[in-house]
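Before the break, one more example. Copy the sequence into your notebook; we will annotate it together after we see the structure.
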Amino acid sequence: MTLECHEGEWLVIVGRNGSGKSTLLKFLSALLIPERGVCRVFGLDTSLPENVAEIRSLVAMVFQNPENQIVGVTVEDDAAFALENQYIPTDEIERRVAFSIGKAGLLEKRKSSVHSLSGGEKQRLALAGAIAQGAKMFLLDEATSMLDSYGRDDILSLFMELHSEGHTIVQVTHNIEEVRFADRIVIIDNGRHIWSGGRKEFFMSAESFGFDLPALAEFARKIGAEDIADYKETRNKALDLPRDDERIRQIKGLFETTPSLRATPPWRGITPSLRNTPPQRGIIEVRNLSHVYSDGVSDRIALDNVSFCIERGELVTLTGRTGSGKSTLIQYLNALYTINDSETHRGRTPGEPVIGEVLIDGQNININPREARRKIGMVFQFPEHQLFAQTVREELGFALKNWGISDSEHEERILEAVKQSGITESMIERSPFSLSGGEMRAVCIASALVTKPDWLILDEPVAGLDSRAKRELLSLLNELKSSGVGILTVTHDLEFALLNSDRILVLQEGKLVCDAVPEAAAQFLYESRALKLPDIVNLWRELR
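Here is what the structure looks like once it is written out:
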């Protein structure tokens, strides 16, 4: 591969999962040394040991999984780690740390334990450490993938500020909307640099390279917008069209084809308390669930009296701001947290009753958590957290052995799960840790499917997925739903959620503030500003 990035440039790199994007960033940060050819950063040859320290003082990298680079006990400890290793004076460290965690939106959590942070907050912390380092170049590997819509805008604004100050930014992303901020876009395929150009050129040719355009860009092209990534131009052109124009009618009816299996409570009347209703089979019920985190200094309410239900054959999406309690909630659904766990409820007034129930098929999950885990497949936010075997085959076979499934069924089930999740058969004998982030996520999905669960819970399933993988995942979810599997996805991708779910649940500071079909959820989000809506949904609202 031959590629140049100019000082002060904002370069966005896109490509399929496993195409070599993250590997390229590791070469630029001197984490990998070229076997052939040469890699120079600010004129320094990365293969020379005497250059490595200087390169790493000039270059800051934010990994795809922020936990791979978090080493401190508290937020401010972690942000200061690199500076302390550079023997920077204490007062300068304190100034830089305060500045960087403020920029990353973590100032109020500077004394908090890093283990109490959500996935999105850990991503912010990794960015804070990079900013504190004072680097001239930022290497960003899916740095916004775990952030909510407002958080992503905040971080992108920060990137723009750094860029305006003359910093070089090299960003890897699967979020096609983010390429509009770049000076130049590069496409990599199978380790080769196959295309580069500007924003307009990329959006005009993106589909020919296998990328799916955002829904607004597709509409903008239909109505002849010159810059299909420009919302204002598309909006103004749409408003000038007759209201009976077929293209306008399609946008106004955006949610008419959205799946809706059953009537759900309107968002103004949240799901009522289920506590006194009889339990039902074929349903996951969460009743008045609360959860408190305590770090020994202060308590934080993660869940506050949450109640809802999910039926089999239903695809429900859970969303909300970073740190709103989403990942905490789903850990109750797989009995990783249990109601009678005293650690869960530290900080409660002595003698105060613990409230909350989780019922699966009418049975309290605490009675037989192993049986609950057999029925529910779980894919975590960071897929490598649940991978441990030497090969993909061993990874998939472990669950089958664990549940006592006959050896004669193993091969058939493994091949079926591999096909469903989009893994190529050539990966079966590879180590799962040699795969890209998106490929590891596919392995985790396969390991959940291999036991044929009644329910599937996926935490940030589309984060880090390329366009084709996202299409394949959606096809799989619809296939599973049709077969009677109940599905709960947790995501910050509102376009994916609103256009493909039966119901939307919104958490806000631990409270369930919305439980509604997508159209009503979109209206709630528009009026409440709880989350920033995708451009296509904003246009839908205006055209109505």
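DSSP finds 19 helices and 18 strands in the chain. Confidence is low (pLDDT under 50) at residues 259-275, 341-354. Try to locate both features in your own notes.
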